[in-house]
Design brief:
By secondary structure, the protein is of the alpha+beta class. It is built from 3 helices and 4 strands, in the order βαββαβα. Residues 4-95 form the Thiamine-binding protein domain.
């Protein structure tokens, strides 16, 4: 499965706390998980089995909760048992079609 998620403080515990610091810590947790992942301006994507992906999302959310009394979490899942490397394959399929290849 692939999870696309965004986690950020809805507010910070102290006026001088930076949202980017909290988000960076969440991304660090994802990257250190060892699961395939990508981060862009809006979401972080993580690929793996249900329990391992959800554990990473929870740990990333807990990291943000450590600096904020309120957290916003947006989550979207593509659940496709028996498939792997969909993080890259889905993009390759689109790129192939854009280049006039496979249909």
């Amino acid at each position: 499965m692939i999870i696309a998620f965004s986690v950020a403080p809805a507010t910070t515990a102290t006026p001088d706390a930076e949202m980017a610091d909290a988000v960076s810590e969440a991304v660090r947790i994802v990257r250190e998980s060892g699961l395939p992942n990508e981060t862009n301006a809006m979401f972080t994507l993580v690929e793996g089995e249900w329990d391992e992906v959800m554990a990473v999302v929870k740990a990333a959310t807990d990291a943000v909760l450590a600096v904020s009394p309120r957290v916003s979490l947006v989550l979207k899942a593509d659940i496709r048992p028996g498939h792997s490397d969909q993080l890259h394959q889905k993009v390759r399929s689109v790129e192939d079609r854009l280049e006039g290849g496979e249909r």
